[in-house]
Amino acid sequence: AENLSFWEACEELRYGEQSRIAEIVDSIYQQFLAPGATRWVNIDSKTMERTLEGIKTPHRYVMDDAQMHIYMLMKKDSYPRFLKSELYRNLLAEAIIPPETKKRVFPFMRKQRHSSPSP
């Protein structure tokens, strides 16, 4: 959950209001990257170093490396685990409507099948 929230926060930074950039960068740092952060995300040390250096002069792309790192973690780990989860299987089962319960939008347009008389 933290990884996805971090990714969304980075999207808000990238596409949000220019006047809020410093505020959003600080919020992302406090929530996800600071030591003891409540929603800490696991990024490698080089990415963390570049990100920490970048936030000294906040701009809308300062979290790009960290966001890409988290994206790849989700792509290679979180998402495949979700696809194998019981939660996903249950959601899928509820979303699929068996053919016999589907109603035709225009049932009168269905051709009646009649067997032709044999000669």
Automatic annotation (TrEMBL):
SMART domains: RGS
Cited SUPFAM superfamilies: Regulator of G-protein signaling, RGS
PROSITE patterns reported for this sequence: RGS
Top-level taxon: Eukaryota
GO cellular component assignments: cytoplasm; neuron projection; plasma membrane
Keywords from the UniProt entry: Signal transduction inhibitor
GO BP terms, alphabetized: negative regulation of signal transduction; regulation of G protein-coupled receptor signaling pathway
GO MF, one example: GTPase activator activity
RGS domain boundaries: 1-92
A Pfam match: RGS
Name used for this protein in its record: RGS11 protein
Organism, scientific name: Ibidorhyncha struthersii
